[in-house]
Amino acid sequence: xxxxxxxxxxxxxxAGIKSINEDSAAIEVPVDDYLLSSKGVVxxxxxxxxxxxxxxxxxxxxxxxxxxxYFRTPxxxxxSRSGEKxxxxxxxxxxxxxxxxxxxxxxxxxxxxxxxxxxxxxxxxHVGDSRIYxxxxxxxxxxxxxxxxxxxxxxxxxxxxxxxxxGMDNRxxxxxxxxxxxxxxxxxxxxxxxHDFLTEQALTQFLxxxxxxxxxxxxxxxxxxxxxxxxxxxxxxxxVDQLPDEKLEDYHAKLTRLPFxxxxxxxxxxxxxxxxxxxxxxxxxxxYLVTDLDSGEQYAMKTPSHNxxxxxxxxxxxxxxxxxxKRIQSPYVVQVIQQKKPRxxxxxxxxxxxxxxxxxWIARNMPPSPRQAIALVKxxxxxxxxxxxxxxxxxxLRPANIRITADTRAIILDFGSVxxxxxxxxxxxxxxTSALGTASYSDPLxxxxxxxxIQGDVYALATIAYEMFTGELPYGSAIxxxxxxxxxxxxxxxxxxxxxxxxxxxxxxxxxxxxEFDLAQRxxxxxxxxxxxxxxxxxxxxxxxxxxxxxxxxxxxxxxxGFWFLTLLLVIYLFSQVSGG
Length: 581
Hints:
Blueprint: E1 6-14, E2 23-28, H1 33-38, E3 41-48, H2 55-70, H3 79-98, E4 110-118, E5 121-127, E6 131-138, E7 141-146, E8 152-153, E9 161-162, E10 175-180, E11 186-190, H4 192-195, H5 200-209, H6 216-226, E12 233-242, H7 251-256, E13 269-270, E14 273-281, E15 285-292, E16 298-304, H8 312-327, E17 348-351, E18 356-357, H9 358-364, H10 370-389, E19 392-393, E20 402-404, E21 410-412, E22 419-420, H11 444-447, H12 454-470, H13 485-489, H14 505-514, H15 526-534, H16 551-576
Antiparallel strand pairs: 1-12, 2-3, 3-4, 4-5, 5-10, 6-7, 6-11, 8-9, 11-12, 13-14, 14-15, 15-16, 16-17, 18-20, 19-22, 20-21
Helix pairs in contact: 2-3, 10-12, 10-15, 12-14, 14-15
């Protein structure tokens, strides 16, 4: 019978004598055999920095997000790569949230130490002054080794000052290491509320004499409390009871060298999936409708194009798409399916969304119902916000990448051009030989080699909203021929009301601001754009200066203003009813 990795573990965290517990801890042992072999077991301890306003939130976020997102990383990635990518984006998220505070002494800061036991190797990630220990017993002799080093210095106070923490800087410097695992090895992760009050000798004695149980970590925390700990107290403990039969050192290398699938025809089978239909094909990828022969479920399978079989950067980006899709959990973004069985080829699965492309919907519904159109724009905005909350920018939002379901909901489908903040310095830089996205909907800054970040998605959303209401583009079709700042300077925004008289002044002004070429004039976030699209901005309702030349002209403008007021009320009603169709 094939042996699998077997772990006994426990974790515990308590406020101790303090009123608030700013520590967080977790251990996740997958029950799914495939996840256990491909991803392993994860344990984490984080200690919120007590001088920071949001230390408790930072430690809780760091632990929960790391555990959750680690198991969503592609099984084609190494442990080190998965951890570094997750922690880099997580650090940037907390760092940006820290800037919500007006004083530099406050922020979302925490230490972080995590252990991943996969196959016969233990991998660790560490920043701050929490610690990871390994206890091995060889020929009856117990040896406790501290795997991490404290990132702290004495600066005259009673306690050391942290030199590194999650959320402290926009660029994370984290320690990574790995050690071989033997059966019977024990691993311990502690916050300073434990190891500042228990010597290594005391820890060794406890681990060698205590009987394994579900509350061993609690017993250790209780021991630290009795030793006089005046801090939050946390510990995570793991013992390796059984190792897999064979070493899997080459497992990752094997997966990253997965061959591209052959050209697939209807009725053929691949890794237990039957090909039902070719949904889409381009020079870069193919999308098939497939059926899982075990469960009967239908999925969309995306496969890479053989045109890029020798392109390492393309392969890297294709694999990253799956990871990004697993991180983003939103009803307005297509779900990437967690792989439950080994792959023999490079591909990934997504939920199959029935419906039509937004480009088809626009062509079929011109002019649209304002209420239905703004409801779809709101769905797309919610999908983009899910990207942005995960420190990612879509970069290629266009009608063809948005699916409209039978019940008239909008779902974003594609991840191929997504940019992940904080990852540019990790691993191989992604070099794009051509601009990402589509010229009609992409921020001109992309075309000129810059990255406008979230504001690039704002531009795309405003452009799509404009087209949904008018059937045209804000700057006309000439924008597709532009390649330089000189070209764009010759373009002028065309009022949406020229193509659809239902569009009111304030709505058109919001679209214009959303598609401004100058970032200083454009909305900074999707939320700001949606606020002005759904509720009239007073700045957009101001009348232009006018000199009255006669009583008759004054009367004329009074009548016209009254008509405009009634029209405004009607349009506000239409645009504010965002539910239903």
